[in-house]
Amino acid sequence: MKAEIIAVGTELLLGQIVNTNAQFLSQELAALGIDVYYQTVVGDNPGRIQSAIETARSRADLLVFTGGLGPTQDDLTKDVLAAYLNRGMSIHGPSMEQIEKLFSSRGIHMVESNKRQAHTIDGADPLFNEAGLAVGNGLSVDGTHYLLLPGPPREMKPMMEGAGRGWIRQALGESQPLYSRVLRFAGIGESNLEAKLLDLIDGQSDPTLAPYAKEGEVAIRVSTKAATEQEAIRKIDATVQAVKDRVGEHLYAQEDIPLEEAVVRLLRATRRTMASAESCSGGLFAELVTNVPGSSGEFAGGVVTYTNVMKHQLLGIPMTQLEGDGAPGAISESTAALMAERIREIADSDFGISLTGVAGPAESEGKPVGLVYFAIAERGKPTDVHTTHLSGSRSIIRVRAVKSALYRLWQALSHSEA
After folding, report:
1. Does the structure show a pLDDT above 70 at 376?
2. Residues whose CB is less than 8 angstroms from the CB of residue 16 and which lie 6 or more positions away in sequence, other chains included
3. What would the 3-class secondary structure string for the chain be?
4. Exposed end of the chain (fewer CB within 10 Å): N or C?
5. Does residue 415 or residue 184 have the better pLDDT?
6. Residue 368, preceding bond cis, omega within 30 degrees?
7. pLDDT of residue 417
8. How far lies 387's CA from each of 154, 171, 259, 331, 401, in Å?
9. Residue 142 — φ and ψ, nearest 5°?
């Protein structure tokens, strides 16, 4: 069963609103075992809407529309589809009563155009709108199924989750749902990860593997269709084990969570804390960690020591370390180590993390853009310093540097937990 999602609305094409409906509907249809092969966005124009219907009908079994069910003259979805199918329209009584009751309760005169929201295409099943006024429609004609949903997400989502889902099941019959598991990796690029898994990706049939990159991380979605959740787990587990055999050292989660959340969870599980001292990353490490709900129990705090004066005043790093002939400089392994050690001592935390380097756009201290040193100082252990050479824009270098530090911290925590 193949589906196409058709979002109707000129405001989508103009970028005035984001089409979040397509993402939601794709997930809902996948859970019903229906493959979404295409997503279309079309403006409020009858000719172009009809063209979108004709194209979608030639390549999909189920057409799911969002938008164009409202009261104004540019809400055309029902009108165009009805004309395309050579069918009339009529008023859905319960929906009309709801509309009249709303206007009456507010003491507002109801103009004639509001009746359009209660229209149903002849032969269609009306889908009552629990969160708004425009009634949805579901109908099957000559082997093609049409589902019409409102555009506003606050109306569309409850209708899809309730009446829409039920109508699809009834119209199409039960099919095997799609089960997925997201694997998250760090410390390895997308191309390298794919190269190590190439035989699995090329030979995939069921389950399927779909890699996709996130900045500083990589994810793989493992998907399968199965009659039961137990069967799906068995099939996915076997594929996940094959992935782990090749790149297990980079696999930090078998769910869709960012690396910083995995680190916070490990700190929590081992009852340890951390603090950060940042230079080139400008506080991004602290920002990502504090975005994790409840991280205050694991993250003591951080400082942004952007200048040498701040490194000296806040962290107590000698100016002779930072400046002068023969000094290692702010951008050096030894300074990164001192920053991590001092912030750990100041916070009395189990880990101190530091980052110093050149994010760009120009070199600094005669050192190239993308050179970043980061250090992890663990209580009772020698400080671990890493050098990395990163590419990309200033913002990308900052993200990649922070993710690199988080990955090394995750490794340290994983090994200690084991």
Report:
1. yes
2. none
3. CEEEEEEECHHHHCCCCCCHHHHHHHHHHHHCCCEEEEEEEECCCHHHHHHHHHHHHCCCCEEEEECCCCCCCCCCHHHHHHHHCCCCEEECHHHHHHHHHHHHHCCCCCCHHHHHHHEEECCCEEECCCCCCCCEEEEEECCEEEEEECCCHHHHHHHHHHHHHHHHHHHHCCCCCEEEEEEEECCCCHHHHHHHCHHHHHCCCCCEEEEEEECCEEEEEEEEECCCHHHHHHHHHHHHHHHHHHHHHHEEECCCCCHHHHHHHHHHHHCCCEEEEECCCCCHHHHHHHCCCCHHHCEEEEEECCCHHHHHHHHCCCHHHHCCCCCCCCCCHHHHHHHHHHHHHHHCCCEEEEEEECCCCCCECCECCCEEEEEEEECCCCCEEEEEECCCCHHHHHHHHHHHHHHHHHHHHHHHHC
4. C
5. 184
6. no
7. 63
8. 49, 59, 20, 11, 10
9. 50, 45
Q: Per-residue pLDDT tens for 84-130? A: 999 999 999 998 998 888 888 888 888 888 889 999 999 999 999 98
Match 């500083």 to its residue by tokens. Answer: 216
Residue type, 28: E
Radius of gyration (C-alpha) of the chain in whole angstroms? 28
Instruction: Report the first-to-last Cα separation within the chain, whole angstroms.
Output: 46
- State the pLDDT at residue 212: 79
Tokens 């989508």 belong to: 12
For position 27, what pLDDT does the model report? 84
Six token digits for residue 294:
């409840």
Q: Give residue 208's pLDDT.
A: 86
